[in-house]
């Protein structure tokens, strides 16, 4: 059962425009949602998080929005830069036990000059 | 502090051989996680340690897999009698309760079973 889903395997955006990456989840026991960025041959790098009690968190060019009623979150990157090209993973933290992160399948973002 | 270190970075082994990976977490982090990532998928949880105690294991972790964290510092993940389906990136991560910033991941060990 895929508890966290990223339905777009890839996204291509023009440099300077807005990139919007989407994520849906099914489990109501998640207390934090996170976005990770991954370059080839490296581990995922934490980008931004949001608590389940908030609906928006902003950090520089990155903003994460959470819609709890729709069980949906999105990551906005504006303006997009070539260095943003990477695979982005949405993750949700299970409030129970190990507080493990459950990851989506990832979205490969390509920023075109 | 150099972050989370994993060794080796790459491992090619023949089917049926045993392999062992090592993870050195960030020194003040008391939680350590192992994840596995296959092509086109996100990382999947394998097991978790708090200090030296292994507190949770995924059903993905078959009897051929064993993990240890002696003295609550570094951790090892051993796979016995490797199979081609074990080919994946094995990621280690550490965290310090009760941070809400997520884990710090290592660069992973890429295992190829031939």
Radius of gyration of chain A: 13 Å
Rg of chain B, Cα atoms, Å: 13 Å
Q: How many strand segments of chain A?
A: 11
The number of helical runs of chain B is 0
The low-confidence parts of chain A are: none
Folded structure, characterized:
The complex is a heterodimer of chains A (113) and B (114). With 113 residues, chain A is mostly beta strands. In chain A, the strands form two sheets. In chain A, strands 2, 4, 5, 9, 10 and 11 form a six-stranded mixed beta sheet that branches. In chain A, a hairpin with a 6-residue loop joins strand 9 and strand 10. Chain A is globular and about 45 Å long. In chain B, the strands form two sheets. In chain B, strands 2, 4, 5, 6, 9, 10 and 11 form a seven-stranded mixed beta sheet that branches. In chain B, strands 1-3-8-7 form a four-stranded antiparallel beta sheet, with no helix packed on it. Chain B is mostly beta strands.
Give keywords:
heterodimer, A: 113 residues, mainly beta, 57% strand, globular, B: 114 residues, four-stranded antiparallel sheet, 49% strand
Please give the structural blueprint.
The complex is a heterodimer of chains A (113) and B (114).
Chain A: E1 4-5, E2 10-14, E3 19-25, E4 30-38, E5 45-51, E6 56-59, E7 62-67, E8 72-77, E9 86-94, E10 101-103, E11 107-112
Parallel strand pairs in A: 2-11
Antiparallel strand pairs in A: 1-3, 3-8, 4-5, 4-9, 6-7, 7-8, 9-10, 9-11
Chain B: E1 5-7, E2 10-13, E3 19-24, E4 31-37, E5 44-50, E6 53-57, E7 65-68, E8 75-79, E9 88-95, E10 104-105, E11 109-113
Parallel strand pairs in B: 2-11
Antiparallel strand pairs in B: 1-3, 3-8, 4-5, 4-9, 5-6, 7-8, 9-10, 9-11
